Amino acid sequence: MNKSAPSLRVLLTGASGMVGEGVLLECLRDERVREVVVLGRRTCGHQHPKLREILHPDFYDLAPVAAQLTGFDACYFCLGASSVGMNEVDYTKVTHTLTLHVAETLAARNPGLTFCYISGAGTDSSEKGRQMWARVKGRTENDLRKLFGPRGVAFRPGFIKPFPEQMHILSLYKWMGWLYLAFRTLAPSTAGTVGEIARAMLRVTTDGAPKPVLEVTDIRALAA
């Protein structure tokens, strides 16, 4: 890679959420990134010379925007939904079905694409555990790996510290941000920052991933 000029083109989903917005801000600051294209249902609320948005209401049908989804080095898939109040069929649709549709669309148009998927600590790779969300996430991770091989990488963050300038921060984190210091001090394998997630994604894009599933300690090591 030519390090003298920005070269990476990144497609990002979930930029109106806490993790996605943090990854966006870090990518815009990183000198390796030439362009960040946000694929979203609504605007992310940010403006930057490196930033372009593709607004599309239906992620289950990307045909109308498919021509714009080419020429990318990586997809940072930060779109997700809480399983609270959802049954397994509905959660599977918004977590597995949607993710795989986006991934398959991108894989067909971007040979060599690195796909970084925000999963979650405690995800069940066996797909047989008691926790519904963990099984669905595990199935999603496994199917992405089948699609992309070693370039399909699952990130399993724990408690996340956002950037203070973010607009899209979960209320829980606004009121309980002090917990980050406690987690980082007493249980460092359970807490990290959104900046570390983004830097680890960029590292995986340029250098590859040491393993298909990255836990908090792996993410922090790659980001260092």
Describe the protein in words.
The chain is an alpha/beta fold and 224 residues long. The protein has helices spanning 18-29, 88-109, 132-148, 171-176, 179-186, 194-207, 216-223, and strands spanning 8-13, 33-40, 51-55, 74-77, 114-118, 152-155, 159-161, 191-193, 213-214. A seven-stranded parallel β-sheet has the order 3-2-1-4-5-6-9, sandwiched between helices. Helix 2 (88-109) links the parallel strand 4 (74-77) and strand 5. It is globular. It starts with 7 loop residues before the first strand and ends with a helix.
Descriptive tags:
224 residues, 7-stranded parallel beta sheet, 7 helices, 9 strands
Compact summary:
With 224 residues, the protein is of the alpha/beta class. The protein has 7 helices and 9 strands; from the N terminus they run E-H-E-E-E-H-E-H-E-E-H-H-E-H-E-H. Strands 3-2-1-4-5-6-9 form a 7-stranded parallel sheet, sandwiched between helices.
Average predicted confidence as pLDDT: 93
Element-level helix/strand string: EHEEEHEHEEHHEHEH
Largest sheet: 7 strands, parallel
Report the end-to-end length measured between terminal Cα atoms. Answer: 20 Å
Question: What portion of residues is helical?
Answer: 25-40%
Oligomer: single chain
Bin the strand percentage.
15-25%
Class derived from helix and strand content: alpha/beta
User: What shape does the CA trace take?
Assistant: globular
Parts with pLDDT < 50 across at least 5 consecutive residues = none
Number of helices, where a helix is a run of at least 4 consecutive DSSP H or I residues = 7
